């Protein structure tokens, strides 16, 4: 899928080198179609890496997608330049009057804090409430998924005995649901988190359906019946080396992390991890775009509030 992104966005060179179809705004303007409008609320500290990971996956179908990057105004990131944010990101006040086909809310390394203790929590709540009338389908990732389940359904998160880090086998359970159409019965996906949700809490809400879960990592994929809310408890978007970089970071911080499970060859951090989840990640994102964004969003986005 051609992705409309600024020519100077760092992700552009990486994606072009991988033969991902990216398109200039000038060329896109000559195509007589309405692109899907996707807003990405990026609250990961590794902004540029996360941009690239998500754009790679959004570039895997024939649909044209126009991306807006959103940051929180109530939190100042420390791991990206102010100029990068100024050049490529908007704040909520700049987009609150817009309507979008889809919204992605990323994870964030704040699981050990209560939701209300996160400095941008109130702003995030405002964005999630706004999404009900201004976004057709919202895709929540990891902590973003926990935050969405807590805000919309009051489902709590619980601390884990140790950080869950690694690549785990999952089983697709909602096999007739369009979001998992084409999934293998068993597939792999990365996790990296300190907290989790409980299956029994999800089952209390009839409008929520568990579509995939893992014996080791728990509930993985949840969707509402109408597909307007998607919750992913892991990080399908992660690159091959992302868990390795997190492991090295935690080592340097003296946190004595456990080696990510099922990740390095023979648990040797000097080896190159095999990439065994990319096909799942590509299918997950393309199914979301196709079945819950492209085929269901009204052509005139102004109709969203009435729907």
Automatic annotation (TrEMBL):
Key words of the record: Acyltransferase, Amino-acid biosynthesis, Cytoplasm, Methionine biosynthesis, Transferase
Active site, per annotation: 142 (acyl-thioester intermediate), 235 (proton acceptor), 237
Enzyme class: transferase
Binding residue positions for substrate: 163, 192, 249
Site feature: Important for acyl-CoA specificity: 111
Subcellular location: Cytoplasm
Gene3D superfamilies: 3.40.50.880
Transmembrane feature ranges: none
Record CDD domains: GATase1_HTS
Annotated GO MF terms: homoserine O-succinyltransferase activity
Catalytic activity: L-homoserine + acetyl-CoA = O-acetyl-L-homoserine + CoA
One Pfam assignment: HTS
Keyword Mitochondrion: no
Keyword Amino-acid biosynthesis: yes
Enzyme Commission no: 2.3.1.31
Main location group: cytoplasm
Pathway the protein takes part in: Amino-acid biosynthesis; L-methionine biosynthesis via de novo pathway; O-acetyl-L-homoserine from L-homoserine: step 1/1
Site residues by UniProt (Important for substrate specificity): 192
Physiological role: Transfers an acetyl group from acetyl-CoA to L-homoserine, forming acetyl-L-homoserine.
Family, similarity comment: Belongs to the MetA family.
Protein's UniProt name: Homoserine O-acetyltransferase
């Amino acid at each position: 899928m051609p992705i409309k992104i600024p020519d100077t966005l760092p992700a552009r060179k990486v994606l072009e080198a991988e033969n991902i179809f990216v398109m200039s705004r000038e060329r896109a303007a000559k195509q007589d179609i309405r692109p899907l409008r996707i807003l990405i609320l990026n609250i990961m500290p590794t902004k540029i890496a996360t941009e690239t990971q998500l754009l790679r996956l959004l570039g895997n179908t024939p649909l044209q997608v126009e991306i807006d990057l959103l940051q929180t105004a109530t939190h100042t990131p420390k791991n990206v330049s102010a100029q990068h944010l100024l050049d490529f990101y908007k704040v909520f006040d700049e987009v609150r009057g817009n309507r979008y086909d889809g919204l992605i809310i990323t994870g964030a390394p704040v699981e050990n804090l209560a939701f209300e203790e996160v400095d941008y929590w109130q702003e995030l709540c405002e964005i999630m409430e706004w999404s009900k009338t201004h976004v057709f389908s919202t895709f929540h990732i990891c902590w973003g998924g926990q935050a969405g389940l807590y805000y919309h359904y009051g489902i709590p998160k619980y601390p884990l005995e140790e950080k869950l880090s690694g690549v785990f086998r999952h089983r697709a359970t909602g096999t007739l649901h369009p979001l998992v159409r084409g999934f293998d019965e068993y597939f792999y996906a990365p996790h990296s988190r300190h907290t989790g949700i409980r299956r029994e809490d999800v089952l209390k809400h009839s409008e929520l359906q568990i579509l995939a879960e893992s014996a080791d990592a728990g509930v993985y994929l949840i969707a509402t019946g109408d597909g307007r809310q998607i919750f992913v408890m892991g990080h399908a978007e992660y690159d091959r080396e992302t868990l390795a970089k997190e492991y090295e970071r935690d080592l340097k911080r003296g946190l004595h992390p456990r080696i990510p499970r099922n990740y390095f060859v023979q648990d040797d951090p000097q080896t190159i991890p095999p990439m065994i989840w990319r096909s799942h990640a590509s299918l997950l994102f393309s199914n979301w775009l196709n079945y819950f964004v492209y085929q269901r969003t009204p052509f005139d986005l102004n109709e969203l509030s009435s729907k």
